[in-house]
């Protein structure tokens, strides 16, 4: 299961995926009514795994006018076990119904021995863990019939490892044909907590595989302050994260980018103002790329 | 090796004791483990708080958090979606010692749960007046519709619907006398949003019979036995127009 899977083509992205937002119930109506260019939405598929209900119908209505990303948290791909078959089938059903532009998961685990933890838990980066992770990614992609993006986690514990996270991700891309979701805030948080350089991480990252980026706010731990940053998604994106985003984009060119917000949900206009900031960065970069291309003709 | 790492970490998450993890760490003992443990526990408290808002409002955030955490310790999630997590929370509330004086609390949890179940229930058609009019009288009398999949009936010895409704909907809650009356409530979602109201004893009995698989004539008979002189016809018509019965078409 560790051979490349060339039969799974990377999805071609809708051209209008600029900056998106994590979709919250409080904003369903506003998103549906919005005419913002480039706006797209992302949801956790687990929140839509229900027999029925208004939530599913809202998502369908919004999906008719906007690209959608399904961003999973429960596949537990870095777990000790193979992907849960029931969960995979539920995910496949949502993919068939909503035809998302992007499907993503995490370099993390969230379930073990029949118990679901509902958190993105860390795993050591070892050869054995890499084999298991790649087998799980391949099994998922085979079951879903499409490639997925894998997101780098926020780290809070320094685990004994044999390789760097960027090497682990690069090898996963090579073996499975998956793409990557670069979470800029997670790089910022992990670099701070683990004591490495965030830009050096970006330099070593397999940038060619990026299909999406994430931006989010973080907070300082109540006891340990700046020494321990928490990926809390409950406040606006910090300046240092915007700077790191600029740095990454200078190497990759524009990528679909999502503002993640899961707590202290602001009014729609406030969240959109933050999204618009990402959209203008992407627009400026597109013009720049376009001008450069013309200058070279 | 993988197995052992996950075993050790999962056990530490359950107990909160990270001692066994120390030889897995590359750096000095780090405070980071508590972040994972807090995430796990607080996400459960948030999930249950969102699912049981009236219970939470009645007992307050801190009391609710302790009750929710104890529930998680006894009944950790086994499915990968938490949309319907907390199926046995009402029983947990009923047995939760610190809440034993709040005799209505478990039934409030049952009403919160009924709302959640109705909200996420299958989008099935309800039996319509039109399809009933198309049936021959004998066929209608013998028809066993069952309840619409979203419909839940909650019965209590106390005025729990009144308590629940004001705690779900009102900015300032009503004052309620606990000794007023027993209440039976209907919570359902024929389509669109969840609806709820109290049921009269006759309505409650009629629906209970239908839920148990009785035909319309059978349910009317049950009503006539317990309430001689009661006319089941208007009961049938109001429940029908509210979309409480399961529809005929798929």
Tell me about this structure.
The complex is a heterodimer of chains A (297) and B (250). Chain A is α/β, with parallel strands linked by helices and 297 residues long. Chain A contains 9 helices and 12 strands. Chain A has one domain: Divalent-metal-dependent TIM barrel enzymes (TIM Barrel, Alpha-Beta Barrel). Helices cover 41% and strands 19% of the residues of chain A. Chain A has an 8-stranded parallel barrel with strand order 1-2-3-4-7-8-9-12. In chain A, helix 4 crosses helix 5. Chain A is globular, with a radius of gyration of 18 Å. In chain A, 48% of the residues are buried. Mean pLDDT of chain A is 93; it is low at 1-6. By secondary structure, chain B is mainly alpha-helical. Chain B has a domain at 119-250. Chain B contains 12 helices and 3 strands. Chain B has helices at residues 2-15, 33-51, 53-59, 61-74, 89-95, 105-120, 129-133, 137-142, 160-169, 201-211, 216-226, 232-241; strands at 152-156, 183-188, 195-199. A 3-stranded antiparallel sheet of chain B has the order 1-2-3. In chain B, helix 10 (201-211) packs across helix 11 (216-226). Chain B is elongated and about 80 Å long. Classes of the chains: A alpha/beta (297), B mainly alpha (250). Chains A and B meet through helix 2, helix 3, strand 5, strand 6 and helix 4 of A and helix 1 and helix 2 of B.
Write the layout of secondary structure elements.
The complex is a heterodimer of chains A (297) and B (250).
Chain A: E1 19-22, H1 28-33, E2 41-43, H2 54-65, E3 68-71, H3 85-98, E4 102-106, E5 109-112, E6 115-121, H4 127-144, E7 149-151, H5 165-176, E8 179-183, H6 184-194, H7 198-204, E9 210-216, E10 219-221, E11 225-230, H8 239-252, E12 257-260, H9 268-296
Parallel strand pairs in A: 1-2, 1-12, 2-3, 3-4, 4-7, 7-8, 8-9, 9-12
Antiparallel strand pairs in A: 5-6, 10-11
Helix pairs in contact in A: 4-5
Chain B: H1 2-15, H2 33-51, H3 53-59, H4 61-74, H5 89-95, H6 105-120, H7 129-133, H8 137-142, E1 152-156, H9 160-169, E2 183-188, E3 195-199, H10 201-211, H11 216-226, H12 232-241
Antiparallel strand pairs in B: 1-2, 2-3
